[in-house]
Amino acid sequence: MAFELPLLPYGYDALEPYIDAQTMQIHHDKHHAAYVEKLNKALEAYPDLAGRPIEDLLKDLESVPEDARTAVRNHGGGHYNHSLFWKVMGPKGGEPGGELGKEIEKVFGSFAEFKKQFSEAAGTVFGSGWAWLVKDSAGKLAIVKTPNQDSPISQGQVPLLGIDVWEHAYYLKYQNRRPEYVEAWWNVVNWEQVESNFSA
Ligand code: MN3
């Protein structure tokens, strides 16, 4: 058993002009692929762990032997986070509806206010990391940030939506202008997937 790079659920150019095809290709085929490869390498000596879902390992990092734990946290986190990232994006964009739409209004006041707070979080991640909309352990919506490839799933939270703010996610098109990338990214959020993550 080994972890596998999932297929991108759309073409490299599907998120143009907001996210360029070259960035998508390198991000998926090189960066994500490297996380999978290094995760598999780290678990070569632990075939029983390599057969478990990555969610299980990240939810309980303490159960991973110490000599593989950092690799699972970093590369396993990278694999899990990116697998979610590809799915919560799509060419359609729009706004959240259904129960999630209502809950966002209830917790943040409005979708616009949620967007503002989430964008602020994404803009203020120091260095490489992620901003997330999660369901916290009490089931309440919250915006959180994680450094590196740490995943909210390791903190008892359920990640619903995440934005990768590592420079590799935007540098070719936006260079140092992370806020422009974040603003453009809202056009490619796949809210149907985020809603389904919320109701799961
Ligand atoms: Mn990335």
Automatic annotation (TrEMBL):
Positions binding Mn(2+) in this chain are 27, 82, 164, 168
* Short name of any one Pfam family annotated for the protein: Sod_Fe_N
Print the keywords alphabetically: Metal-binding, Oxidoreductase
What GO molecular-function term can you cite, just one? superoxide dismutase activity
Domain Manganese/iron superoxide dismutase C-terminal residues, every copy: 97-196
Highest rank taxon of the organism = Bacteria
What's the Enzyme Commission number for this chain?
A: 1.15.1.1
The EC category is oxidoreductase
What do the Gene Ontology cellular component annotations say? cytoplasm
Does Metal-binding appear among the keywords?
A: yes
UniProt domain Manganese/iron superoxide dismutase N-terminal: residue ranges: 3-89
Q: What SUPFAM superfamilies is this protein classified in? A: Fe,Mn superoxide dismutase (SOD), C-terminal domain, Fe,Mn superoxide dismutase (SOD), N-terminal domain
PROSITE patterns named in the record: SOD_MN (PS00088)
Q: State the reactions this protein catalyses.
A: 2 superoxide + 2 H(+) = H2O2 + O2
Q: What does this protein do?
A: Destroys radicals which are normally produced within the cells and which are toxic to biological systems.
What family is this protein classified in? Belongs to the iron/manganese superoxide dismutase family.
Quote the protein name from its UniProt record.
Superoxide dismutase
Q: Which organism is it from?
A: candidate division WWE3 bacterium
